[in-house]
Specification:
alpha+beta, Alpha-Beta Plaits, four-stranded antiparallel beta sheet, 18% helix
Length: 115
């Protein structure tokens, strides 16, 4: 599998609770199509890459439908995630709106594939 590049990498999985990051939020993001002044269209992939650089972000997905991005965020608590959303995520140029869903409990979380 390694020689065929089926295995991407080996990683250590950390216990987020024990590291003080038990809170999870799922965030739906709607981006603006273009800049109001210049009418230049926003590069959604570039915005997604910018968001992916934040250490709080675990996943960034470009999606179809009424929303443009789906994010998974980890933090110490609701307040920390709220501060991240208001102070760091929302001010990103091209952001139109985001809705944050706090996770109460997780039944399954895996990177396993059905092989």
């Amino acid at each position: 599998m390694e020689s065929e590049n089926i295995i991407d990498s080996y990683k250590t999985l950390f216990n987020a609770d024990k590291l003080g990051l038990p809170a999870i939020a799922l965030i739906m993001v709607r981006l603006k199509f273009s800049d109001i002044t210049s009418k230049k269209p926003y590069d959604f992939k570039a915005i997604a890459k910018q968001i992916a650089k934040f250490p709080e972000i675990q996943e960034v997905h470009l999606i179809t439908g009424d929303w443009d991005l789906f994010l998974k965020v980890r933090g110490a608590d609701t307040r920390a995630i709220g501060k991240f959303v208001t102070d760091q995520l929302s001010p990103i140029e091209g952001m139109e709106r985001c809705v944050t869903f706090m996770v109460f409990d997780t039944e399954k979380e895996t990177n396993d594939l059905p092989i």
